[in-house]
Amino acid sequence: MYIDPYYIILVIPALLLGVWAQYRVNSTFQKYSQLSGSRGCTGAMAAEMILRSNGITDVQVEHISGSLTDHYDPSAGVIRLSDAVYGSRSIAAIGVAAHEAGHAVQYSVGYAPIRIRNFFVPVANIGSKVSIPLIFLGLILSFQKLISFGILLFAAVALFQLVTLPVEFNASNRALAVIQEQGLLAEDEVSGARKVLSAAAMTYVAALISTVAQLLRLIGLYGNRGRRDD
Which is catalytic among the residues 100, 168, 181, 187? Predict the structure, then answer.
């Protein structure tokens, strides 16, 4: 029976890291969702205050159903906050809402890394959908160039996730700075918001590590297949 050493050494640890990161973000969010901020500010109020303080008047704050479905949609100019964030006065809600408002500020000031990330979006979307099918098709046809192209597209996904990291970290840093400047949370409550945002950021790190592990596995298995077959 064939045992894939790359999967055992690279992929399984990365997958376990991803499971741990998801558990951490869920448990941390749940913990600080039960603790209300003493200033009485809701997630929606926090996002709106951050927008106004940065002179942003063309972005709306809306409610969206679901859990942890919060996001900023630059094409629509809308910050969408989930059930547990929009009307909640919890420490977690303030942190998440401020983070999404941080993304709106990034677009407003022309933050360079977000422009770079947006440049890679089309290629990353294509790569995530067709890279593996192309590799399998190349294996069936014994066409190494097609395999290599599939691996290259998969690498584009990893590159997109890499350039996403500074965008997410910067949005969180902006959020925490404004939370303190605007007094959206008391001083002893800010650490809770920081923990929520740090846990969320870890999911992006875990996703990158998982993709890089898969990429190294693909390169190890199929990157030089043509030479080995010779």
Answer: 100
